[in-house]
Structures are given as C-alpha cells and as structure tokens.
Design brief:
This protein is of the alpha+beta class. About 20% of the residues lie in helices and about 35% in strands.
Length: about 150
C-alpha cells in the first residue's frame, strides 16, 4: 500500500480546518463586548445547568416582604448559557409567573401550601425572562410574604 500524496493530506487538513471554523463560528455567539471568556465556554459545553447570577437580575427581585395581593416583578438578563436555573423559595402562598423573552405566553406556578418550605426552580432560556411574584396568603399577615429569589 502506498502513502497518500502530500496534496491529498493538505486537502484533508484544509477541509478539516474549514469545518472546525464553521462549527466555532456557528456554535459560539460572541457577547456584546466582543471577547470570549474561556470559562464561560467550558461551562456552556461541559457543565450542567447553572444558576442565574445575582447580577443578571434587573429590578425588584422581591428583596422585601410583600403584602397580600402585592406583586414584585423583575427581569432576568439573557446570557451565554442555553438554560439556567432560578430557584424561588417561600413558606407563604405565592404565585410565580414566568414569561420567556421572545414568547407571548406566561407560565404560572402556584406555591399553595402556606407554612411549609416550598421551592420551584425556574428554567431561564438564553434570551432571558420576566418574572412576577404575587403574594396570595402570607403565613403572618403582619409581616407579609417572604420570598427568596436565587441562591
């Protein structure tokens, strides 16, 4: 069996280089700053679902108690990750409404058991989302609904 010609080897290497450049160009979208962070790429392709960073929350992320019927709303910025998790916890009855950016529908989640530790993990897509949390029935009406977002 004879060795392949040098021109054949160069052609195969050139084709391989074009395929790799295409995959990198299509598979990786550069952030607004134009620079690529290697750690973010590693998390995106090798890691599991990561949590939403506190800096990605814009607006009132329910930091204070909510009176019965009161709503707090905030935005989750878009990010590199295809999907991120945003945990929401409360011991009060609350309604959490998630609306992914770019989609018209809203997805409500009811945490209905006042007095028990309740948790929902919202899955936030790459484009971000709007989240609204409404207090339905606080365990202690004088304090209001206590909601923990993130972490």
């Amino acid at each position: 069996m004879s060795a392949p010609k040098p021109s054949t080897i160069l052609l195969v290497l050139a084709l391989l280089a074009v395929v790799v450049l295409f995959v990198v160009a299509v598979g990786v979208r550069a952030p607004d700053t134009g620079t690529v962070d290697k750690e973010q790429l590693k998390e995106r392709w090798l890691g599991g679902v990561k949590k939403v960073a506190p800096g990605d929350l814009e607006g009132d992320a329910c930091r204070g108690p909510l009176r019965s019927g009161q709503t707090c709303a905030f935005e989750v910025k878009g990010a590199w990750s295809l999907s991120r998790s945003l945990p929401v916890r409360s011991t009060d009855a609350v309604t959490v409404v998630l609306q992914a950016k770019g989609q018209g529908r809203k997805v409500p989640v009811e945490l209905k058991r006042p007095g028990t530790n309740q948790r929902v993990d919202l899955q936030i897509g790459q484009r971000g989302a709007r989240v609204e949390i409404t207090c339905r029935a606080p365990v202690n009406p004088q304090v209001g609904c206590l909601v923990q977002v993130g972490s």
